[in-house]
Amino acid sequence: MRDPAGAPVPNAAVAVELKGQPARPATGAAATMAQRDRQFQPQLLVVQTGTAVNFPNFDTVRHHVYSFSPTKKFELKLYSGTPAEPVVFDKPGIAQLGCNIHDRMSAHIVVVDTPLFGITDAKGEVTLNLPPGEHRLRLWATRMGNAAPSAQPLVVAAGAASVLKVELKD
Q1: Percent with pLDDT over 70 in the chain
Q2: Pair 75, 66: CB distance under 8 Å
Q3: So where are the chain's domains?
Q4: What's the pTM?
Q5: Which of 105-120 are b and which e, b meaning 16 or more Cβ less than 10 Å from the residue's Cβ?
Q6: pLDDT by residue (tens digit) across 22-67?
Q7: Residues 6+ apart with CB under 8 A from 84
Q8: 65 to each of 61, 71, 72, 101, how far by Cα in Å?
């Protein structure tokens, strides 16, 4: 993925929804958004709708993790260790996270209605194994804030590996 100036867009969420296949929530899927060195790790997490996310705190100080985003509103009030219950992200969208104690702590969880997703690397690239057909490509980068992922059609040809070059519009 590249920006309008042609520079790679690292650490961006990419998801592909397959045409003709309804969105199904993940069953039993779990992910982790840790706090270490007074930062969220990772700062971008992509999960499928229905995924339970654990928030372990590996710091020696307590954190108060929250999201007021419409995608998932929650608060994990001052805690250390790992909360007993994970947070289930049950609808698609962007959840921006923060810590009421440490204002510089922030992260995003992108919730998608497909098991086909990834995060771009330093070169702005991600590899997904896609079946041939007409699909919908969804993209999101931090600079988009709480805006919904952008969407565009994607056609994958039968019998050949495809490399798709995508430009992220501002």
Answers
A1: 94
A2: yes
A3: 13-156
A4: 0.91
A5: bebbbbbbbbebbeeb
A6: 778 778 899 999 999 999 999 999 999 999 999 999 999 999 999 9
A7: none
A8: 13, 15, 12, 9
Asked whether the predicted pLDDT for residue 170 surpasses 60, the reply is: no
Structure tokens at 47: 């999960």
Q: Which amino acid makes up residue 136?
A: R
pLDDT at position 25, please?
A: 79
Q: What's the CATH number for 13-156?
A: 2.60.40.420
What's the Cα-to-Cα distance from 5 to each of 8, 34, 109, 144, rounded to whole Å?
9, 34, 26, 16
By C-alpha distance, which of 113, 138, 142, 105 is closest to 51?
Answer: 113
- State the Cα–Cα distance between residues 99 and 66, nearest whole angstrom: 6
